[in-house]
Specification:
The complex is a heterodimer of chains A (128) and B (823). Chain A has 128 residues and is mostly helical. Chain A has one domain. Chain A contains five helices and no strands. Chain A is elongated and about 70 Å long. The two termini of chain A are 25 Å apart. Among the domains of chain B are: 130 residues, Penicillin Amidohydrolase, domain 1, CATH 1.10.439; 116 residues. In chain B, a hairpin with a 4-residue loop joins strand 28 and strand 29. The chains are: A mainly alpha (128), B alpha+beta (823).
Chain lengths: 128, 823
């Protein structure tokens, strides 16, 4: 795939990741960030989706004082019983995983569709 | 890619997406983390639709907001906006609690509370009051509307939904209304109402113990309190008393059996069979989320206040001190602030959700509140037949109000006396509460906020209704008290003379018009005194007024008076009182009753054979200075010794008589019996033997729990403060913190008298402390918290350590840390 298209796909993916974080409460908003990554090869799209998902999501914490984040995680730990580090990373992790699967799926669909069109072209008489 | 891999990826994606719906609260941008970014207060300008003119909000270093507006309506609007910005979740939670809608937030676990609130009548009273304000006081209704608009202006911002409580519960704030403000006022009134449960509990005691015993254990006036009433003297108010108005002496009046059929109209044999009905009433009006111990005979909830005349103070100017004891919650029910606009300049503490300043000062006046513990509610025994009640020989239909909670419909039935709070076949108990009349407390409060002299303060308090409160007042030149509010009077007969008394000690006959309320005590006859000759007055929940008062408090369920004794002796010994003396008295942690009782205990223990631990414990007790600091071991030995004495006496007998749900007697009753009858049956016939056995048990228990080194049995190891979150989530509260104080100390740390380590946490205490001297322009204050409800904010608990250390903020002299402009 053309490098320019790949770069554009990654930039759009990052933009969509932040857009979904700012406007969609649910972590499945990460499905959006995977779609532009279809331009990547299957080998890289999953990793890219995961990295973009987890980094974009975790970077939001930089908006807040780190002491407040850790204190709040400690409070939530007492309420729900999960370790505070896990509480901080849980959403980014989920966001990254969904991004990765979405990217893989998008790439897979692209490849599948491309394969089907090749097969179709091969089956058409006069185009051999 | 093969199609089966694509299908598999779709399945995984759907599963992950489904799982992720459980983690929305943890979304770094839209979840609870947003609260982490709201901790600071910085100078800024906020555009608020609906505000008439710009308002400046200056935040000082102690966290107090100084709100300056160009007119009163904008001031109320800005107060509403600022209060919501700091406490919106608390306000809405309390509004739901007060209106009986808590189950809408927390589900089935809120239903019992909602039922109690509706049965007592908080929402219906608030609704009635709102209509009364609209019809009779449109200007004050306008202030309520302005406050409401301010709250809603904040709710309409994106920041509102980011308050941590909303995020944790996954809910959004609802729009505020005047109704919620008034409902919260009703809730506070209910929390501080005497007479709702006390006559029921004393009826249970009377049924089981009989008149002689109840008189010994629960005398009309607690032992040793006769000379320490709020109004100095015999009970004469404005020249009026029982003797000169009714020609009945206090001795004649108070020698009557006020539990008898003659006093209540209820046959005492019938009353004896009604204990299950009474217990049902107590259960039905108890609020599981309410103030612990608020409605209890000999309530552990109390408050302190005192005033000093100009002639008695070092500066020549009157002074006032107040520290209301309320549940200590995180956040506090109070928000400190100054409200300034043409016609008003007041500083003090505002109840979150209610406009104005309830406890505070202007430049020329100051005031504080305590609860007087005289009945403003009474219970009536009703004779019922299906949906009818008997009154004056005729059957009348009860009115019915239906409501639905969690999909289930409930009904409340009303007689002429009020709602039926308990029913057993043909008998029921109705609650007659003074707050069912419109109570214009907010008018009184806002008039106090604008007052500049003593007579204006009295005029303001003529509007105060429910609950009656002891108002401590100090102005430039005057000081004094009035117990303002609605006290329903009932006619009683002594020596063929009919006397208008306040309250009852048991159920009244609801079918007999002779026991109906005949109006409230007129304002000029309410307990009051100005510039007392002796130089000072005080009102820490002890008897308000002496036995010769013209409207005797038959329904007077006073505190034991230990704090009153300490205050009385301190002020008596400190003529030329200074501000520092006032602070020292508010910080006082000595136990007056322990000082009285300990010599009897030591005397009983002297000479008994002791092991080394017992000897060390005895030495701690006998050498104790009666203070309750965290490093003291003497208080620990004393407290657990009296706890075990209670176990072996009152708790045992109460348990045998099925009275375990009724409070045990004051320590003063035990002291009185120890002083006058050591062979009393209450002491198993031998006080000395009882104390020795209790001491052996106690020292064995404490050795087991705290080790054999008695020097390490310090109060701080067993006595802790916990400031709970109203959500019940312990992580959002503060503590446990090792704390000073006891149940009878001025700086209070009330705990039940139980043989357990540690003691139950202190949860009620000085919700604020204020000292005011308008004549010298000196005002000090502190409270155990901060203005913010955000646990991540410095302003969540910025004043806590100052409060724990018994220190104060100079309310006139704090640096500015931020200026917020509303426009």
């Amino acid at each position: 795939m053309n490098k320019g298209i790949i770069a554009a796909g990654i930039v759009v993916s990052i933009a969509l990741a932040y857009a979904s974080l700012f406007f969609i409460t649910y972590a499945f908003g990460a499905i959006l960030l995977g779609i532009p990554l279809m331009v990547l090869h299957r080998k890289y799209s999953g990793i890219a989706g995961f990295v973009i998902g987890i980094v974009s999501s975790a970077s939001i914490y930089l908006m807040y004082p780190i002491a407040s984040v850790t204190k709040l995680a400690g409070i939530v730990q007492q309420i729900i019983g999960l370790p505070s580090a896990l509480i901080i990373i849980l959403f980014p992790l989920m966001f990254g995983l969904i991004g990765a699967v979405s990217a893989l799926l998008s790439t897979g669909i692209r490849e599948y569709a491309a394969g089907r069109s090749h097969e179709k072209a091969a089956d058409t008489p006069g185009e051999q | 890619m093969k199609i089966r891999w694509l299908v598999l990826l779709v399945v995984v994606l759907v599963l992950l997406s489904y799982l992720s719906t459980n983690f929305t609260t943890l979304n770094p941008k839209l979840g609870l983390w947003e609260s982490a970014g709201q901790g600071n207060i910085t100078s800024t300008t906020v555009n608020i639709p609906g505000l008439g003119s710009p308002v400046n909000v200056t935040i000082d270093a102690s966290g107090v907001a100084h709100i300056n507006a160009s007119n009163l309506n904008d001031l109320m609007f800005a107060q509403g906006y600022y209060s919501a910005s700091q406490r919106l979740f608390q306000m809405e939670l309390e509004a739901l609690l007060a209106t009986g809608n808590l189950s809408k937030y927390i589900g089935a676990s809120g239903v019992a509370s909602d039922q109690a609130m509706r049965l007592i009548g908080l929402p219906s009273n608030a609704w009635t009051l709102e209509q009364a304000y609209k019809a009779n006081y449109p200007a004050y209704f306008g202030y309520l509307k302005s406050y409401t608009q301010g709250v809603n202006a904040y709710i309409n911002t994106s920041a509102a939904a980011n308050h941590l409580g909303f995020k944790l519960l996954g809910i959004h704030p609802f729009q505020w209304t005047v109704f919620y403000t008034l409902a919260w006022q009703e809730y506070m009134a209910w929390s501080l109402t005497t007479g709702a449960a006390e006559p029921l509990q004393s009826a249970l005691l009377y049924n089981s113990l009989g008149y002689q015993n109840i008189s010994l254990l629960w005398p009309y006036y607690p032992d040793f309190t006769q000379n320490i009433t709020m109004v100095p003297g015999d009970g004469t108010v404005n020249g009026l008393n029982l003797s000169n108005q009714y020609n009945v002496t206090p001795e004649q009046f108070w020698s009557q059996n006020w539990y008898s059929q003659n006093a209540t109209g209820v046959n005492t044999t019938l009353l004896g069979a009604l204990s299950p009905l009474i217990r049902g009433a107590l259960a039905n009006i108890s609020d599981p989320y309410g103030m612990p111990g608020a409605h209890e005979l000999g309530s552990p909830v109390g408050s302190n206040s005192w005033v000093v005349n100009g002639s008695y103070s070092a500066s020549g100017s009157p002074m006032m001190a107040n520290d209301p004891h309320l549940p200590l919650t995180a956040p506090s029910i109070w928000i400190p602030m100054q409200l300034e606009a043409p016609g008003m300049n007041v500083t003090g503490w505002d109840l979150a959700g209610v406009p104005g300043i309830l406890i505070g000062h202007t430049s020329k006046t100051s005031w504080g509140l305590t609860t007087p513990e005289g009945n403003s509610a009474n219970e009536y025994l009703e004779t019922l037949n299906n949906n009818s009640y008997l009154y004056n020989g005729t059957w009348h239909s009860m009115t019915v109000h239906n409501y639905t909670l969690n999909g289930k419909t409930y009904s409340i039935y009303y007689t002429n006396n009020g709602p039926i709070i308990s029913r057993n076949q043909n008998y029921g108990i109705s609650l007659n509460w003074a707050a069912s009349q419109p109570s214009y407390d907010l008018i009184g409060e806002l008039m106090l906020d604008q007052s500049s002299n003593y007579s204006q303060m009295l005029n303001a308090l003529s509007h105060w209704g429910a609950p009656p409160q002891n108002f401590a007042m100090a102005t430039l030149h005057h000081s004094g008290y009035i117990t303002a509010g609605y006290y329903p009077m009932i006619k009683e007969t002594v020596n063929s003379t009919t006397i208008d008394v306040i309250g009852s000690r048991s159920l009244l006959n609801g079918s007999n018009p002779a026991y109906e309320p005949v109006g409230n005590v007129p304002f000029h006859q309410l307990p009051q005194a100005t510039n007392p000759v002796r130089g000072y007055m005080f009102a820490p929940n002890q008897p308000t007024v002496g036995k010769n008062y013209m409207h005797p408090f038959v329904g007077g369920f006073w505190a034991s008076g230990g704090r009153a004794q300490t205050i009385y002796h301190f002020l008596k010994g400190h003529p030329k009182t200074t501000i520092q003396d006032m602070m020292a008295l508010q910080s006082n942690v000595s136990d007056y009753w322990a000082q009285m009782f300990t010599p009897y205990l030591v005397s009983a223990l002297k000479g008994m054979p002791m092991n080394s631990t017992e000897t060390a414990a005895f030495n701690q007790l006998s050498g104790w200075n009666y203070t309750t600091n965290q490093n003291q071991a003497g208080i620990t030995v004393y407290w657990y010794l009296t706890a075990e004495i209670y176990n072996m006496t009152f708790y045992k007998v109460y348990s045998q008589l099925n009275l375990s749900d009724v409070p045990t007697p004051f320590i003063t009753s035990a002291i009185y019996i120890a002083m006058h009858n050591q062979s009393s049956v209450w002491f198993d016939g031998n006080f000395t033997h009882l104390v020795q056995q209790a001491f052996i048990n106690e020292t064995a228990f404490l050795s087991n729990r705290l080790g054999s080194n008695v020097n390490n049995w310090t109060w701080g190891r067993v006595h802790f403060l916990e400031i709970a979150s109203p959500t019940g989530i312990s992580a959002l509260g503060i503590g446990p913190i090792s704390i000073w104080g006891g149940s009878h100390t001025v700086s209070v740390g009330t705990v039940p008298r139980l043989l357990q380590v540690p003691e139950a946490s202190v949860s009620v205490g000085s919700s604020l402390r204020t000292i005011a001297s308008p004549g010298t322009g000196k005002f000090y204050g502190v409270f155990p918290g901060g203005p913010s409800e955000n646990i991540l904010s410095y302003y969540f608990s910025n004043q806590l350590n100052t409060w724990i250390n018994h220190e104060y903020y100079n309310m006139n002299d704090q640096k500015t840390v931020a200026v917020i402009r509303y426009e």
